[in-house]
Design brief:
Strand content: 15-25%
Number of strands: 14
Order of helices and strands: HEHHEHEHEHEHEHEEHEEHHEEHEHEH
Shape: globular
Helix content: 25-40%
Strand order of the largest sheet: 2-8-7-6-5-3-4
CATH class of the largest domain: Alpha Beta
Largest sheet: 7 strands, mixed
Distance between the termini: 41 Å
CATH architecture of the largest domain: 3-Layer(aba) Sandwich
Number of helices: 14
Radius of gyration: 22 Å
Number of domains: 2
Length: 429
């Protein structure tokens, strides 16, 4: 694939052929899929479809190579030490649950603890909550600082010799701020605990280097990375693999079986029982190639310009209350060593007197896709004393024209429906 001109990136996404007026602002939920990805999947299904690791004929061997090559590409993409540290699964949620049931539940004891942050998505809360209850262990929650990041001083205070795992999101799906993974790893490893990083919201916006960060577990979903649904990656460091039991049993992971017992293979593929979703794995590889064809420097610059521009526009609207305050000039768009770490990758806000669901409905009528509600992070909204919020999350296909049209539509919606000081009820998701 040749280099892509990011200024005309919308041309790479087929949806804009049939929806030219669409302004898609929900990439944190799922990113749109470029035609190079859907085309690669279509070609696989037409010309290469067979099961991997299951046959000695040409199509099966080709499918096996596709999975192997995708694993290597994903390992390189996240800076893993080798491809045999990456397991494919169906979603980041499944990956987190695999660690909870295959690793944590095997070692967590009464009186020990697991530490998460106050910014977690339900997917990085509920599995730990369940295992801690089963083991009569503590689930400790780290506060956020004024910038929406994990408070490192509070983290240090909560972590002790009884801490088994830190499990936290690199980027909150509500607040959008980027955290320092290396600092978490140092705190965890000092007491012999392991670190799981949920990179679902980070993987499309922050270059990863799991080996140098010293992560033990790292998980992300392909559908956040322009790959479509059905494939996620769970990184398991070599040391943790010796402690990790497979959670899904079936074909492809055994060396010998009889009626009463089985012997399992060694290595990362022991976590991948059953037939893999090769089409989704192919899509992930194609999406990684798509990102590579643009380059991280252009991606970071493009997103920084847009986020700065949008923040400047939102700050000018007195009826908008961001969940975090951002004092930044729209001209502050440097990239590289001078990039300010405090810039978010997404923005959540409330509108005075206007429920987020009503706002989303009004914007939908103007072909604007905006997220509304609790974003599967109800405890965080409770802590912020906010019953619901609207969320803008950008992708490579967004531009300044999208931001201008969104701001105009937002202002019209407020003028039409807002009622000052109207109570807003809690909406469960």
């Amino acid at each position: 694939m040749g280099a892509i001109d990011i200024s005309g990136i919308k041309k790479a996404f087929s949806v804009f052929d049939t929806e030219p007026e669409l302004i898609y602002l929900d990439s944190a939920s799922t990113a749109l899929v470029p035609r190079c990805v859907s085309g690669r999947v279509f070609d696989y299904l037409r010309y290469q479809h067979a099961n991997s690791g299951r046959g000695q004929y040409r199509l099966a061997e080709s499918a096996t190579r596709l999975v192997r090559d995708a694993r290597s590409a994903a390992a390189r993409f996240i800076g893993a030490e080798s491809a045999d540290t990456l397991a494919f699964c169906s979603s980041a949620t499944e990956g987190i649950n695999m660690v909870a049931s295959g690793w944590l539940s095997e070692r967590l004891k009464p009186g020990q603890n697991v530490v998460i942050s106050a910014a977690e998505h339900h997917a990085n809360l509920l599995p730990w909550q369940k295992v801690c209850k089963q083991a009569s262990a503590q689930l400790r929650v780290v506060d956020l600082n004024a910038h929406g990041q994990v408070d490192l001083n509070h983290l240090k205070a909560l972590v002790d010799d009884n801490t088994v795992l830190l499990a936290m999101s690199q980027v909150s799906n509500v607040l959008g701020v980027i955290n320092d993974v290396s600092a978490w790893a140092a705190i965890a490893h000092k007491v012999g605990a392991r670190l799981l990083v949920d990179a679902s919201q980070a993987v499309a916006h922050v270059p990863a280097s799991v080996a140098s960060w010293a992560c033990d577990f790292y998980v992300f979903s392909g559908h956040k990375l322009y790959a479509g649904p059905g494939c996620a990656v769970l990184y398991v460091c070599k040391a943790a693999q010796t402690e990790f039991k497979p959670t899904r049993l079936g074909g492809g992971i055994v060396t010998e079986v009889d009626w009463q017992q089985a012997s399992f293979i060694q290595g990362i593929e022991v976590y991948e029982a059953g037939s893999p979703n090769i089409a989704a794995i192919v899509a992930l590889h194609a999406a990684i190639d798509f990102i590579d064809s643009i380059g991280w420097q252009k991606i970071l610059e493009h997103e920084r310009v847009l986020i700065s521009y949008l923040l400047g526009k939102l700050n000018s609207l007195d009826f908008v209350q961001p969940l975090l305050s951002w004092d930044i000039s729209a001209s502050d768009v440097g990239v590289g060593e001078n990039t300010k770490a405090e810039l978010p990758v997404l923005i959540s806000f409330t509108c005075q007197g206007l429920h987020s669901h009503d706002l989303a409905s009004l914007l939908n009528a103007e072909n604007i896709a905006l997220r509304a509600g609790l974003h599967c992070a109800q405890p965080l909204h409770k802590q912020l004393n906010v019953s619901n919020s609207s969320r803008v999350s950008l992708g490579l296909y967004n531009n300044k024209e999208d931001m201008d049209l969104f701001i105009k539509a937002l202002s019209r919606a407020y003028e039409l429906l807002a009622v000052v000081n109207e109570p807003v009820g809690m909406v469960n998701e």
